[in-house]
Structures are given as structure tokens and as C-alpha cells.
Amino acid sequence: MLCSAEILHNAQESGVAILAFNTPYLPMVRPIIQAIADLDSFALVETARLEWIKFAAQGPVAIATEFARWNDPLYVRLHLDHVPVIDEDDQQVDYMGIIREALDLGYHSVMIDASRLSLADNIAATRRVVELAHHAGVPCEAELGAVLGHEAGPLPPYDELFESGRGFTSVEEARQFVSETGCDWLSVAIGNVHGAVSGAFKDQKKVEARLNLDHLDRLRQVTGVPLVLHGGSGIRREYVLAAIQKGIAKVNIGTEIRQAYETALRESGSQSAAESAVYQRTCWLIKDYFNVAGIRKQVTEGKQA
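Request: output the structure for the sequence above.
Response:
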């Protein structure tokens, strides 16, 4: 079975992106995998710690168990998304314990998010996780810069954030970070924002984000690793497609499918309708928005497949 690191490398070389679908509710896993397989695509199913705390994903064991029920290794791998050192509520997290558990459960890739720390402390924490993951033969994603949105309360005005470059990943810091940590993939901040996860804000339409493509170009040149775009829901399509051509090899999707699930369940009271809504939205994202239907052989067998 081709490992996730090779698949993302193939995606970047081919100018396509691997979508990574977050699963804040366990019943979302089956329709996501079904949509990926039906469209002969390839994607990651992923779970982040905040989805166990603020939603109903329950934890890495529950997600791994549900994933195993529907897993088809021709089309999907299981990824551990955001495990923070300091979480969105400024609480310390036992990140090493969570990542060890995920590796023991057979997750195919993991992510450490020490981006709320100083550069030196981010490097140190990330290096520890990279060593642990590589010992298990698993790639490790890290984050540098501030992809805002998960914190309590509303975002500052988006245009102000974008024009100021607040939180953008520093090019020189990225060069140092990748060199000193050995991370396999790097999540970067170039104008992208996460969807809100707290209170009434989580139900609001996500801001239509833009991406600084020139900044992305510079990051790709100095890092030499596949780059990851978090907060992939709601970004203007022309920006995200251009970003994929400039080195983004993985795009995280959360808000788009979570809100489809929640809205259908709230309006119909039907679990089946909610799962159907996730399937339909996932198909639309794969086929119509990101143009990644039919990429399975291309990314699992290489550029010439």
C-alpha cells in the first residue's frame, strides 16, 4: 500500500491536490468515503482534537473504528489533523500522548500544531513528533504561521487581516523550520482562515477568503516539501486552483461538509438525509470545485499513470 507521503508527493508533482475531509460527526465517514470512491478520486479522512471536544467525533479510537468499517485503501487514508500543543482555548494539551495513541491505532499520517508557540519552541515540539512519527513509518504535518478562525469570537475584518499579512507564514522562518524539524508537509498561512467552531459563529457562512499567491510561490521555493492549505472551505475557486499549481498538495475541508450535515439534520430530523447531504456536497467538491474526480491512479501510481 502506497504511503501517504508518496501520494502527496505524486499529487504535488502532478499539479493536483489531495482533499482531506474533517469528520466532526461519526456518521459523516461513510458518505465521504463513498463519494471519493464513486468518483475514482483519492482523499484523506481526518479528525482533529477540537472535533472530539466541541463536536461529536468522540476521539481517535471512535474515528479509527468507524473508518475501518468503510475503509477502501484504493481511495482513502486516515489522517490525524490538528493536535495542538496549546489549544484554541489557551489550554495545554498532552499532544505526545494523543499522537502516540493515533500511531498505535494505525493512523496513516499525523499533524502536530505548535504554531501558537515561539518559533524555537514550535521547532522543538515539532521535531519530537516528527521523530516519533518517522519511527512508526508515518509522515508528519506541522504548521507555521497563524491560520485564524478556531479561536472564540468573531474574526477581525478579513480585508484588514489579508492586507496586513497578519499571521502569514514567514518565508525565512519556513526555510529554517522545515530544515530543523524534518517535517514532511507544512501547513501555511497565506490568507486562508479556519471556519468558526464556537457558539453561534459556527453556523455562520464562512468568509470568502483570498490567497497571496506570490507569497505561496516564495514558500514553495524555500521549503521543498508539499504544502497544506487549511481552511479550504469558502476560498474563492480561482485562488485555490491557482494555489494547487503553485505547490499546495493537500487541502483541508471542514466547514463546507459539516454545515451540510448539520443543516440537513436540523431541517429534516433524518439521519439518512444528513448523510445524503454530506455525500452530495462531497461529490460537488471533488468533481465541480476542485476538479479532482478521476485522479486516483495519477496520485497512487505516479505522474505517468
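The longest helix spans residues 271-289.
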